[in-house]
Design a protein that fits this description.
This protein is mostly beta strands and 250 residues long. The protein is built from two helices and 14 strands, in the order H-E-E-H-E-E-E-E-E-E-E-E-E-E-E-E. It has a single domain, classed as Lipocalin, CATH 2.40.128. The relative contact order is 0.18.
Length: 250
């Protein structure tokens, strides 16, 4: 996690340095988001043709576990915002299936404990243009570039196999904020895109409270949903987050 924090700090510094050259008015924010994450669905079939369909929740479970996300955000004047995100996510467990599982190039025996890990680390850069900011509403839209570092791994005492995927996904971004008072607001913040090969959605609904000009906290719910249906991989997940975040603005 220290490596992620240092990376984010470097990104924030680069963004800030660029902003100083291109904008006369800017703010820089660092946010830490934490809470509990739990899976509602995680269906896997690898390879897509010939593999066995199984529920990864039989291994990793559906109980909540802690998570952490790190953000660096720079507002360039009143209209333009850029944001960098580091979002590691990994969960492991042990389960037993009542049928043999053919996964990647290996058959895992029924009735024998299987250790498994599901990993979906994401690194994201987002740009937003605020096109409406009055009457207690702020509305924006933009685009995001996501790099995913995903892995599904199964292990039995005498065998193991895994599938890894490092790839790029473009996303559309939306933002809506409604001020409910001088210090309180509600925010919808989402990024999503769907295609024939799959889809991806990361959206949150939060209540924000500003203690001062520099300190803000938010609490709410986040949904991470999507997956791929391609020649090599079939995997779709529904992941829930109960979130609490703290933000400092410079």
């Amino acid at each position: 996690m220290l490596r992620h924090f240092l990376t984010l700090s470097i990104i924030a510094a680069v963004i800030t340095f660029s902003a100083n050259k291109s904008a006369c008015s800017q703010t820089v924010s660092i946010s830490v988001e934490t809470g509990g994450v739990w899976f509602s669905n995680n269906e896997v079939r690898i390879p897509n043709e010939g593999g066995t369909t199984f529920d990864m929740l039989e291994i990793i479970g559906s109980d909540a576990s802690p998570y952490l996300r790190l953000y660096a955000t720079v507002s360039l004047g009143e209209r333009h915002t850029v944001r960098a995100l580091i979002a590691p996510l990994s969960k492991s467990g042990t389960g037993i299936f009542n049928e043999d599982i053919f996964f990647e190039e290996t058959t895992f025996d029924a009735g024998v404990p299987i250790d498994g890990t599901y990993q979906f680390n994401t690194y994201r850069f987002t740009y937003r243009y605020t096109f409406y900011n009055r009457n207690n509403w702020k509305l924006g839209a933009g685009a995001a570039a996501l790099i995913r570092d995903a892995k599904v791994e199964l292990i039995q005492p005498d065998r193991s196999d895994s599938n890894t995927d490092l790839g790029f996904v473009p996303l559309l971004h939306i933002y809506a904020e409604r001020n409910l008072g001088e210090r309180v607001s509600i925010v919808l913040d989402g990024e999503s895109l769907a295609a024939r090969q799959g889809r991806a959605t990361d959206v949150s609904l939060t209540f924000n409270y500003s203690f001062s000009e520099n300190w803000t906290t938010r609490a709410g719910y986040r949904l991470l949903e999507g997956g791929a249906d391609v020649d090599d991989v079939y995997n779709f997940s529904w992941i829930n987050f109960g979130l609490l975040a703290f933000q400092i603005t410079f």
